[in-house]
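Standup notes
- DV: blocked on the single-chain target, sequence here:
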Amino acid sequence: MDLLAEPKLRRPFRRRVFLIPGGEPVPPAFYRELYLRQGTAQADLAEMALALRPGRGPASWRVAGAMEAGFCDTEVELLPWADLVPGAAGQAILPALAGRLGTLWIYLATGTLLRLFRLRPVAVLAILVPPAVLSGLAALALGAGLLLAQALAALIWPPAGWLAGLLLAGVLLLRVRFPPLPFADLGLLARQRGALSPALAERMGRFRAALSEALRSECDELLVVGHSTGAALAVSLMADLLRGGLPGRRPALALLTLGQRVPLLSFLPEARQVRRDLNALAAAAELTWVDVSAREDPLCFALCDPVSVSGVAPEGQLWPLAISAALAETLSPARRRRLRGRPGLRHLQYLCAYDRPGDYDVFRVTAGPRPLAERFPGRGRIDRVSSGQGTTGAPRAEAQRPVR
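- DV (later): unblocked, structure below
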């Protein structure tokens, strides 16, 4: 039966969604196609119907949803910023390695890397993989140059051999471009030790203008979704929206952070604004903030309350509500086997279909007729202070079973 064709006894629930992805260098069309493909798969597995149509531009799309005895009209708009990341289009080995080592040095020199390691070791080890890979490639390039030099030196003339080897190594190190490796966006976020770069601050201003326009629209819910590193930017955008003042008639405000990496930014010494934003949102009664992560995702800080671990939990903290995606339960064994050894796909799973859907389902959240505030009652978090940068709130040691 076509659920979308059923008669509508009342007007559909209207929602505006702003999706802030991480800094991965993918075109906006990637997320639209991902939503279409995975939404179709989820509709086949659950009692729902989704229909997509073009939005206002290449970075937006509209969704009509029928599920849970109701209807919803959603407009999704992507807020991309990956083009600002150094080497977003790929880099040669040597400049890429220099950039990664520079970023790593900032985290080491400020003591941030050790605090992050204490919080979640597997996430820090994942950060170290790209520099290790680039170092290996650099060693291979130098080794190839050395082999060529020795071969030509023995066959022709030693100076010519060494010159040829040097040229080969130089070409491999400086001219051959490789696709960006994970965590390239840390170079942008850590460049000023946690303060936003001028280019990113300007982009955030444009994002704020888009949210302010939606705040005065006729929608029922304004939902900001931050995935991966984009979760930290989503927090700052929502905090700015609240600071700017809210109109009397407005949609319900909701923030959804998925696979968040907020501590990568909030633990840095100059990330004072981000910590202020976390502190403000944690006690804001005007919104609902749900944080979804999974222990099976090695590229995020799973089930860690980003407010408390950053040392800025206010008295009477309300948010975030921590939810486990529980991939061991929501994905079939066959699906989990396909994701084994592919951490990037596991990190993207929050935006994909689940073949054993649980409480969290991105398509019900974004295209369903119920606001976020009605979906997740309970609370659970890991809120051990780890950043060393706290400004409010006393250290607490608490580890609760995540609410599902």
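- Follow-up: The CA atoms of residues 261 and 301 lie 6 Å apart.
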